[in-house]
Every structure is written in structure tokens, then in C-alpha cells.
């Protein structure tokens, strides 16, 4: 096989591993063995370990991919002329690819420099998107960017059992209800204080106590 052919095959195998890892971790839990990932991808353990030496490296890669996709979704939302449509499209996109599905690993893996940089970029873009919708009078004034992020996390959790078209339709229905709840002016005052950035980011700091 030529060098280009080997590189293409390695890229395909990496994609298979990442897809399998995301499915296994989000359906079986983050304690699932990496052997289950290799089996789901149809590859040997050697192929997995050549690319990812530890489970932590694999989870870091998955988190970084999710953050990159959030950056893309927020950029697309800001490119939309209508502030509400840009905001709602961002939320739907993030829910669609499950951007918050890996949130439960917060505090259990090391946050790399690349993860930190990408997270800051995602936060900055999402903040601009939320502020624009709020300033346009489309998003209720008491909703913060972190409220939206936590809402996306909730909708990113996979439903019990195998993937099901009916479950996906129900999720889209509930998401439409939630988005309407975010529209200005808002009928019910929100209880308590909004989440703080220190609390939100602090979840990714391992507990050493």
C-alpha cells in the first residue's frame, strides 16, 4: 500500500474509533472498557492504542472535537441575519450533535491547553450570540449564556435504549417548547441566581480533596 493509501486508511480508522468511542461512552458510561470501543469500531486493540495511548487521551480528543463543533455552530449562528434564528439555530445544532454529552467527564480528565483555548473561543462566540439575541429583544433578558449551555447539556443526554426515530421526534418537540420558553419577555421569573463562570468552568478541575 502506498504512503497516501496508508494515511487514508489511518484517517478512516481514526474516524471509526472516534464514532465508536462517542457511542460507547454516551450509552454505556465512561467506565466502559476501551475493548468495547475497538469491538464497536471493528478494529483491534493495537489500532486503538497506536492512536490513543490511554482512555484519557481518547476522551480529551472527543471533548476537543465537540468544542470545535460548538465554535462552528456559533459562527454559523452569528452569520445569520436574524438574531433569534441565529440563536435558535445554534441551540438546535449543538443539541443535534450532542455537544454536552461529554459533560459528565468534567473533573475526571486533565484539560489540555488546546481544550482550554477552544473552550474560550466557543464561550466568546456563544456569548456574542446570546447578547445579540437579548439586545434585539428576542431572548428574555434574564437568560444567560451559561443557562443556555446547561440547557444544551440536558438535551444532549442520550435517551435510554438504542437510537430510535420516535425518541428523536419527541426530543425535537421538547426542544421547540424549551426555545419558546427562552423567548422574550418571559412569563415566569427565573428562580435563584444564574450559574457563574467560576462554577461552570470549575467542574473541569479535578477534585483533589
The count of strands amounts to 0
Distance between the termini: 52 Å
Could you give the order of the helices and strands?
HHHHHHHHH
Strand count, sense and closure of the main sheet? none
Please state the CA-atom Rg, rounded to the nearest Å. 19 Å
Give the oligomer, counting copies of the same chain as homo and different chains as hetero.
single chain
By secondary-structure content and strand pairing, the structural class works out as: mainly alpha
Number of helices: 9
Low-confidence stretches: none
Average pLDDT rating:
88
What percent of the residues sit in helical stretches (DSSP H or I)? 55-70%
Shape: elongated
Describe the structure.
It is built from 9 helices and no strands. The chain has helices at 3-28, 34-41, 45-51, 55-79, 83-96, 113-135, 145-156, 165-182, 197-202. The protein is mostly helical. 67% of the residues lie in helices and 0% in strands.
